[in-house]
Design goal:
transmembrane, mainly alpha, transport, 2 domains, RAMP, 5 helices, signal, receptor, DNA polymerase, domain 1
Length: 143
């Protein structure tokens, strides 16, 4: 029977299934800062002006999220959970507070530009239809 607890411990250390004992939130909150510290150390390798470019640190961030998931599952908690999300949000505030998604406000061009852009294809379609009809009638008369 001692093999079963060892198997459960092995599974939980992989972050796949929390132990049956329940969530130890205190221990989780004590363990998560380790993940944040490791992430902060790795982010020192990335120049600050590149912190908003995810491709510069995606490997570090993936490792950070995996760490939070494993540490959360090891203490019997599910991931994500409100406490873990709060911790992750704190890390985001620390490193990515100046990264904003620039959203373009799209608007229609002025009427002086919009009307010709709409009218030109319509008039061209009418003209080409007229040419085709005129040409088909002319060919019928020649034969």
């Amino acid at each position: 029977m001692p093999a079963i607890p060892a198997a459960l411990t092995a599974v939980s250390s992989l972050g796949e299934c929390p132990p049956v004992g329940g969530c130890n939130e205190k221990r989780m909150l004590a363990m998560l800062p380790h993940c944040g510290k490791t992430f902060a150390e790795r982010m020192k390798k990335v120049e600050v002006w590149k912190w908003c470019n995810l491709s510069e640190f995606i490997v570090y961030y993936e490792s950070f999220t995996n760490c939070t998931e494993v540490e959360t599952n090891v203490v019997g908690c599910y991931w994500p959970n409100p406490l873990a999300e709060s911790f992750i949000a704190g890390v985001h505030r620390r490193f990515f507070q100046n990264c904003s998604v620039a959203r373009h406000h799209w608007q229609d061009p002025p009427d002086g530009i919009l009307i010709p852009l709409i009218a030109a294809p319509i008039l061209l379609t009418i003209a080409m239809t007229g040419v085709v009809v005129w040409r088909s009638k002319r060919t019928a008369q020649v034969v």
